[in-house]
Amino acid sequence: MNRHYLWAWSVLAGMAGALRRIPSRLRMPLLVLVAALSAAAPLRAQPAEGGGARMHEVLVGKEVRRYLLVTPPGTTGPAPVVIALHGAMQTPQSFRAYFGLDAAAAAHGFVVAYPEGEGRVWNDARPAAMRLKAMLRPGDDVPFLLLLARRLVEEGVADPARIYLTGISNGGFMVQRMACEAAGTFAAFSVIMATAPANAQEDCAPARAVPILFIHGTADSVIAYDGFWAPVGAPLSAPASARLFAGLNGCPEPPRERALPDLDRGDGTTVRESVWDGCRDGSRVVLLSVERGGHQPPVRVDTKPDLATPFLGLRNHDIDSGEEVWRFMSAFPAGAPVRSAGQTGAPGGALPARPPLPAASPLRLGR
Q1: Element (H, E) at 159
Q2: Are strands 188-192 and 79-85 parallel, antiparallel or unpaired?
Q3: Ramachandran angles phi, psi of 310, nearest 5°
Q4: Which of 101, 173, 279, 294 could disulfide-link to 251, CB 3.0 to 4.6 Å?
Q5: Would you say 34 and 15 are in contact if contact means Cβ atoms under 8 Å apart?
Q6: Are 61 and 142 in contact (CB under 8 A)?
Q7: Helices (H) and strands (E) in the chain, counts
Q8: What pLDDT digit, counting tens, does each position of 250-295 carry?
């Protein structure tokens, strides 16, 4: 085993017990630093793209940007497309293996695009010091994501009324930036393990009502569920982030709340759903709070966690992030309602019922 790999693993193991004692504003920089150092070492070759996956390149200004496009068998365009943004220091391949979105894509017939952030990070809307800009060299990502959406339409891959944006952690922060600055391009948004930066309360001005889903663990030790303050800027709490977009969408308070079934009693977590509906233009805001959940997207399919995954807290198996993302976002085609296989909702109506999910598979560690 590579000595750099062993070093990174030992650092993460040492952090596991101490992470909660580290001030909230320092947790993300520390985890990103370790991930960056471990990613720089030649750990293992990335698995070859398969299952209808191809890597593509596109020129954005003077930057060559890359994205992995996954087309399930039998899916023909123009089709619904979910653009999925990785967390800090992930690659499109490692994010694809960890997130588990491909299973939902195959079940419902949508295409997934996994773009790669410059330096493996996204230039989201948080203050530069919180994004470690000097360390991680983020590129100009807003034009990249807009160009990617346009290119997928021009190539006949994407239905322009059904282009959706999701992301986890750093990618989730970037999703919110796009919701604030480019709401017209994407029909709906979903954010996992990320909250709105405090400056969004003044800066976020979507061109239209924004359907948006949040999924966040209450015991997230990297992006705190309850938010935190720091001199360089502060992320809001997960409930305050959902309320921010509910306010922008003109949703009435309070939200409807309920506990979801505890399907896997062995995972140590449960899920509480808060729904703001009756919003302007038929939009909706949903927050799925994973009680005792860590910095992990819930999953009920087999995945290949990243190096740091075992140290990021409990992972819920009552819901599946891919299914939840699709269930929420597919109910909101832009413009006139467009129905497709697996899509039973429509703007302003009830969300599709949750389909029966497969039993949670044992999670495989490693790549």
Answers
A1: strand 158-168
A2: unpaired
A3: -65, -10
A4: 279
A5: yes
A6: no
A7: 10, 10
A8: 999 999 999 999 999 999 999 999 999 999 999 999 999 999 999 9
